[in-house]
Amino acid sequence: MLKIEGLSKTFGKGTLNEKKIFSNFNFNVDNGDFITIIGSNGAGKSSLFNAIFGTFLPDEGRIYLDNKDITYVPSHVRAKDIGYLFQDPRVGTAPNMTIEENLFLAAGEGGWFSIGQKKKSNEFKEKLSLLNMNLENNLKKPVGLLSGGQRQALTLLMATYSKPKLLLLDEHTAALDPETAKKVLDLTNKVVKEEHLTCLMITHSMESALSHGNRIIMMNDGQIIYDAKGKEKEEQTVQGLLNLFKTKEGNLMASDRMLLEV
Ligand SMILES: Nc1ncnc2c1ncn2[C@@H]1O[C@H](COP(=O)(O)OP(=O)(O)O)[C@@H](O)[C@H]1O
Ligand SMILES: [Mg+2]
pLDDT, tens digit, for every residue of 170-223? Predict the structure, then answer.
């Protein structure tokens, strides 16, 4: 459903800061895939999402979503089909607006006072109660007053409200305390499964990359250096991933210790 063909990108071409990120990069995602993505700092994981979302345009290559060439489609148009969550819980919701108002935006409702408002509010309450974060009784609370975990759960609900074709999660639980992170991860799993979403999730935790999804990829230096699904993924271990990483990289760098975090 997502196909990246021959993607090349160099930032700051011809300057001292020239940085080649991708060179003839290829990537195929099937409908319903839940792919976890790991790799050291600077491996190009976030850049991959930025390419898919259209934050930058490629120098070469094509990107297809559901067989439609979206290579030059602007990101605000792609946003209708692609849900995107970041590490920072403050991104993705409007802080001065209430939970309800944010949800109206996500649901694509124009006027707050449309006839269906009451019905919608009940629908929001129902959806919010599934999050188990006590948001359903706080519809009138400004989102800026919520905890990081509550806000990220709400962002997840908003990003998936109109069932996006593709959901991109870029370390969306990394800024939360471990207990809340687990809650949001469980919620993510539930939403992705129940809504049959196609999802790519970047995580700094090998453990959580192995315990989520049906396919795992490891990136390094703008390339996919490991790609496993199904049984092969199920049987993979953190130690196995580390060994792979060592063989490819020579030595495990200090900056990659974070990959061992649960
Ligand atoms: N807009 C940009 N301009 C210049 N360099 C960039 C830009 N975006 C990312 N990079 C560089 O590309 C490399 C990959 O970054 P990134 O995709 O953020 O890695 P990751 O998410 O895997 O940690 C890094 O070296 C980063 O500095
Ligand atoms: Mg990143």
Answer: 999 999 999 899 999 999 999 999 999 999 999 999 999 999 999 999 999 999
For the chain, the structural domain boundaries read 2-81+164-260, 100-162
Matching CATH number, 2-81+164-260, of 3.40.50.2300, 3.40.50.10540, 3.40.50.300, 3.40.50.1100:
3.40.50.300
**Atom 20 of ligand 1: nearest residue by CA position:** 42
Distance (angstroms) between ligand 2 centre and the Cα of 78 equals 20
> Which residues, 6+ apart, have CB-to-CB distance to 68 below 8 Å?
none
β-bridge pairing 198-202 and 34-39:
parallel
* pTM score, whole prediction: 0.90
Ligand 1 atom closest to the Cα of residue 219 is 22
Beta bridge pairs of residue 229: 215
223-229 β-sheet, strand order = 82-85, 166-170, 198-202, 34-39, 215-220, 223-229
